[in-house]
Design goal:
This protein has helices at 16-26, 39-50, 66-80, 101-128, 140-143, 153-173, 195-203, 213-225; strands at residues 7-11, 30-35, 56-60, 85-88, 132-137, 177-184, 233-236. The chain has 243 residues and is of the alpha/beta class. β4 (85-88), α4 and β5 form a beta-alpha-beta unit. It starts with 6 loop residues before the first strand and ends in a 7-residue tail after the last strand.
Length: 243
């Protein structure tokens, strides 16, 4: 699929999502950006995209509320006239060393259930328009079968659910819609990491660096443009899974 002239809905479009949005706008793809708290970031991203000559829409939507998700999908199709690409980026990454039921629910709802809900509401519109692409966000640890870090059980389980969701929906929505996921590794360093911790990550990564958000944008573009890859989870981790 050529993204030019198409419409992409990106959920949770802060940080990495902004770079993905800019890459699509540069290729002539109109954008709908959802946000829950970071309206300023979404508006700034939309303003930047408009300078590339594409239409944009900014929509408030809580990724755990189905009514708001449905409204965001419908607003995208009605305002921008179509919906071809869904990129489910809304996510949380929270350490829970003694997880509660609430921690479990938050992780599952935000990371997995939201992707499911956006997908089931977007798919009929995509099919009516001739097809589409859905891209989810999993995690390199899940795809590699390595929980590795203690204290992240709800997060790990939720991202494993995303990988399973990707495979299941790829089968159910074929052949009109291709469904894949990206499994990031060391892309953007958390702001609270020490210099020693930053170096430790680079030492454990065969490519010896943090990837940067641009690498996720490149993977997303590949999964949009391909016509024969579906049900896959692609690790973008600098070879971290090999060590």
């Amino acid at each position: 699929m050529d993204p030019k002239g198409k419409v992409a809905l990106i959920t949770g479009g802060a940080r990495i999502g902004q770079v993905v949005a800019q890459a699509l706008a540069a290729r002539g793809c109109a954008l709908a950006l959802t946000y829950r708290d970071s309206r300023a970031a979404a508006e700034a991203c939309a303003a930047s995209a408009r300078t590339a000559g594409v239409s944009t829409l900014v929509v408030h939507a809580d990724a755990t509320d189905e009514a708001q998700i449905r409204a965001a999908v419908q607003a995208t199709a009605q305002t921008l006239d179509r919906l071809d690409i869904l990129i489910n980026m809304a996510s949380t990454y929270i350490r829970t060393p003694a997880p509660s039921a609430a921690d479990w629910t938050t992780a599952i709802d935000t990371n997995a259930r939201s992707a499911f809900l956006y997908s089931i509401h977007a798919a009929p519109i995509m099919k009516a328009g001739g097809g589409g692409r859905i891209i989810n966000m999993s995690d390199w640890l899940v795809i590699s079968g390595r929980p590795r870090y203690e204290g992240y059980t709800p997060y790990f389980a939720s991202k494993a659910a995303v990988a399973a969701l990707t495979e299941g929906m790829a089968l159910d929505l074929a052949p009109e819609i291709l469904v894949n996921s990206i499994a990031p590794g060391p892309i953007l360093a958390p702001p609270d990491l020490t210099a020693a911790e930053l170096a430790e990550v680079m030492d454990a990564t065969p490519l010896a660096r943090w990837g940067g958000a641009e690498e996720i944008a490149k993977a997303a573009l590949f999964l949009i443009e391909t016509d024969f890859v579906t049900g896959e989870s692609i690790r973008v981790d600098g070879g971290r899974h090999l060590v």
